[in-house]
């Protein structure tokens, strides 16, 4: 079992005024970034609710956490299950909307039902949970929401068009909410994590191989949590990822789409 490091505890005290029974809910906590974010939050004193479809994998993650955890099996593509989870766990301090997946292929070839399910998980679930928990947090004038998007949010993404578009939605939604909260002088904070390639099971689900070596999910999780507590709105881990995002903002959209297409073709398994 891990021991809470004094420096980690100090960070939490500084940025979140941690108290007894502080709770975080992490979706997609069974693997990858979600798993490591859950472990990280647990290591700095949070009780963590681990949410995912894969119950057995959640049990493994729970065994790696320092503090108290609770496992919640949920299909986030189902609106009713999202609402049911919210009703069960209304009183939380941090929501991490991490669940999501991708799919590779020409838009005219990919399976419609799989794409609609991806939209339900990547967009609808994030939208529903963000809205429900934001309203609850605003009643108490405290809380944090971390939505996990991707550096894909800044690009058109041919050959992964639906996935890229879904992450663009998450980015724009979070930035828009942040401005509303700022103008209302709310103490509730929102952030959006936009990682590039990360060594996770995402590659296998999407059917791609990244040309560049990905960052470790543990590094991305630690970086994301640290920046979230510093109230950073858009969190971009990794120097190469930061440079690529700047490039996306500078290039004409049609040229960027051509470049993206050539990059995506190299990922195909």
Key traits:
269 residues, alpha/beta, Rossmann fold, 7-stranded parallel sheet, two-stranded parallel ribbon, 9 strands
Question: Could you write a compact summary of the structure shown?
Answer:
This protein is an alpha/beta fold and 269 residues long. The chain has helices spanning 6-16, 32-43, 55-64, 79-88, 112-140, 161-183, 202-206, 217-229, 239-250, 253-267; strands at residues 23-27, 47-52, 69-73, 94-97, 144-148, 189-193, 198-199, 215-216, 234-235. The chain has one domain: Rossmann fold (3-Layer(aba) Sandwich), CATH 3.40.50.
Helix share of residues? 40-55%
Morphology call = globular
CATH H-level superfamily? NAD(P)-binding Rossmann-like Domain
* Total number of beta strands: 9
- Helices and strands, in order, run as HEHEHEHEHEHEEHEHEHH
Q: Assess the beta-strand content as a share of residues.
A: 5-15%
Radius of gyration: 18 Å
Known CATH architecture: 3-Layer(aba) Sandwich
What does this 3D model show about the protein?
With 269 residues, the chain is α/β, with parallel strands linked by helices. The protein has a single domain (6-267), classed as NAD(P)-binding Rossmann-like Domain (Rossmann fold, 3-Layer(aba) Sandwich). Helix content is 52%, strand content 13%. It has helices spanning 6-16, 32-43, 55-64, 79-88, 112-140, 161-183, 202-206, 217-229, 239-250, 253-267, and strands spanning 23-27, 47-52, 69-73, 94-97, 144-148, 189-193, 198-199, 215-216, 234-235. The strands form 2 sheets. Strands 3-2-1-4-5-6-9 form a 7-stranded parallel sheet, sandwiched between helices. Helix 2 (32-43) packs across helix 8 (217-229), helix 4 (79-88) runs parallel beside helix 5 and helix 5 runs parallel beside helix 6. It is globular, with a radius of gyration of 18 Å. The mean pLDDT is 90.
